[in-house]
Amino acid sequence: MSEAESVPPQRAPLFLLSFRQRNELATTVAAAGWRSVAARRADEAERRFAASGAAVALVDARGALAEGLAATQALGEVVAERGAALLVLVSRGDAGRIGDFYSAGATHFLASPMRAVELVQALRFAERHVERLGGWEARAGANAEPLGWRWDPQLRSLQITPALAQLAELPEQPGRRGLLRQLPRRERKLVHSALRRLGADTPATAFAHDLPGVGRLVHHLQYDARTRRVHALVEPLGAAPDAGAAVRDAFEGVRDATAARRWLDQRIGETQTLTAILIALERFEDVNAAHGRSAGDALLRAVARRIDEAVRSTVGKNALVARLGGPEFLVATAPGSGTLLRSCIETAFTRPFVAGGAVTPLEPRIACTESEPDDSAATLLRRLSETIAERAAGPEAPALDRLAGDIARAIADGEVAIVFQPQVAIATGTIAGAEALARWQHPELGAIDPETLFAAAERAELGRALSEHVQQRALAEAADWPVSLASLRLSINVTASDVSRPDFADRLLGRIDASGFPRGRMTIEVTESSIMEELGEAARLLAELRTAGCRVAIDDFGTGYSSLAYLKALPLDVLKIDKKLSQDIAGSPRDRVVVRGVIDMARSLGLTVVAEGVETEQQLELLAKEGCQYYQGYLCAEPLDAAALARLVEERG
């Protein structure tokens, strides 16, 4: 059976945006049975998607990362509102930016290189998630009656949909000549040329024209090789753009990321030097967690107003003020006033804000730079983001340096202790296992969290030694667990440094056997970053561990590469959802779609799903509804020592 025959007729078209490979992708999806509305530019992408009636948007960001991210941000809100899905394609080298696409509104993603069948499967996953959301139909409204036509060359019959007939004031069977007469004579050749291009090798193409009284229309054609019919979706683009409005928008400032990039590119293209300031809010997620997303959104609007007031009072209207997405804002103006503007913005943040009825102080990180001759909007914004990131990391360096000097002593003196985070079966509420975690009680600085502990060890070049110490202590303690814990599985973490060793599997298995803890109750947790450098070698090592009787889990899924292709390639048993995704499930419908996608993808591959960082009953209930099987987090218990873990298991029966 061919791929095209295996795909049932779709209820809705596919909206496809590709900056480099539109025709190739359109041909691929057409061969698999989708009708697509395909675009090469992101202009008005959100309006075009909404008008298309599509259930799934496909954004191809390969080779066009900045443009793809901007398009995803533009589409994210309308996708969420309509209960639709947004699949993003990225190059493998850009896989580290997946989190940015999630934040911008993507619900699914796939990394290149990929085969056509993998793209088709990813689109099917996306459609299934739309169906499980309740479908796009109830929210599609005006898209229920599409504009379109069908040409049957054997019968020489042309039919148009009722909506197109009404728009063009034509009968529903106007005949080919009747439809062509609606077009200016010089544009009728476009139709003939497009029809000649269609065939088995080119099953999809498009052409655009102006229709008097209506505006610009794009006809997306698809050829059915079995019936030899041509099906067309007609996409109205509206009237020609208002040049005056565009100029006013450029000179008076804008409020969204897409228009901000356009403003920057226009000014830089006119060889004007700019001063650009990026403002990023510290710990804004705490506001959402404490007061809810509606309070967070209201707070962002208040921040935008205050920044705008500070800018206008300093440089007047000749400046750009924009929100780039999330808690980030951009100010751009002519050079010479950057220092004064920055000071005014900092002063504006000295007054607290109000969120959820509570007084909330906000700490901004601010970066300022001037444009360079070879800059574009993308490079200018990237430079600002890198400066912000460097400053965020800077104050931690002295503390890490001090901790790094204490690591060797801490390991030797036994200061690094082991605690166990219970893993609970959602269906029964019983504790099925525990993850071993490191805790360092520093004699002067107090409790040090695991991330800081391992970061300090890496700085001291003792990361491997610390990892082996933690594994050995965890195994030793678990081997001495009381009878009440005799059925629990033990999960231990391995690092990128561990996996990179040629004898990694042999050494770890030797350590397990020496402890006396049974291999059959062991789960080895690896992070995405630790296996992506050499995927083939990682697959071999993980297979060796599984053959030896251990189970293998991918940890913190959703923070890195996260591709269906590599999940299929690796010998895995368990997928652990990162705590950020687990907690986001109680957020917007778009957040739930992301988590649902991860769970469905994992279970379709036969993987057990464990959600990390679960803290509320609402999160647990939503995860259970989506098919998650296990969870760990403060809702059950904080990380416990072995004695406390035994008491908890006994209490739960």
Topology:
Elements: H1 3-6, E1 14-18, H2 22-31, E2 36-39, H3 45-52, E3 56-60, H4 65-81, E4 85-90, H5 98-104, E5 108-111, H6 116-133, H7 137-140, E6 148-152, E7 157-160, H8 162-168, H9 175-180, H10 188-197, E8 204-211, E9 215-223, E10 230-238, H11 243-252, H12 257-269, E11 275-281, H13 284-291, H14 293-315, E12 319-325, E13 328-333, H15 338-348, E14 353-355, E15 358-360, E16 364-370, H16 377-393, H17 397-413, E17 416-425, E18 431-442, E19 446-448, H18 450-459, H19 463-479, E20 489-494, H20 496-499, H21 504-515, E21 522-527, H22 535-547, E22 551-557, H23 564-569, E23 574-577, H24 579-584, H25 589-604, E24 608-611, H26 617-625, E25 630-631, H27 642-651
Parallel strand pairs: 1-2, 1-3, 3-4, 4-5, 18-20, 20-21, 21-22, 22-23, 23-24, 24-25
Antiparallel strand pairs: 6-7, 6-10, 8-9, 9-10, 11-13, 11-16, 12-13, 14-15, 17-18, 17-25, 18-19
Helix pairs in contact: 3-4, 4-5, 6-25, 13-14, 14-15, 17-18, 18-19
Report the principal-axis shape. globular
Average pLDDT, all residues:
79
Helix content: 40-55%
Structure summary, number of beta strands: 25
- Please state how the strands of the largest beta sheet are arranged side by side: 17-18-20-21-22-23-24-25
Q: What would a concise description of this structure say?
A:
The chain is of the alpha/beta class and 653 residues long. The protein has an eight-stranded mixed β-barrel with strand order 17-18-20-21-22-23-24-25, surrounded by five helices. A five-stranded parallel sheet has the order 2-1-3-4-5, with helices on both faces. Strands 7-6-10-9-8 form a five-stranded antiparallel sheet, sandwiched between helices. The model is unreliable at 1-10, 136-144, 239-254 and 393-398 (pLDDT under 50).
